[in-house]
Amino acid sequence: MPRLSFRPAVLLSLFCLIPLTSGCDWLRPYRVDVRQGMSITGEMVGRLKTGMTPEQVRFILGTPLLNDPFHADRWDYPYEFRAGRSSTVDRKVFSVFFVDGKLARWEGDIQPAPPNDDGQNRLIEIEPRKK
To answer: Is the pLDDT of residue 119 over 60?
Structure first.
């Protein structure tokens, strides 16, 4: 049986190629994108109006993820997106504030969507029936 012998140049080239190929993107395992929290859109923010009840805000934005027992008049909607192939993390927080059971203000990283060509958002307002 013949014995395999490696020359020093071949060994040196293998030792140089292994670290170079470890940085290649195609050798990494697949990682999924991770979305955590409530994804609040600009259109949702555009539908908010001061004076709304908590039920109306919950209908538009959904149930808040963070309820602070010490600040019951503040609802927080955190959102985090981690791209699988990169190490970037996109974090956004949106908060609404109530005074006397009515929406007083909101703040956060999400801005209201610009109105469409007609000058309005896609929200259709229906007036309540008068008895």
So the answer is: no
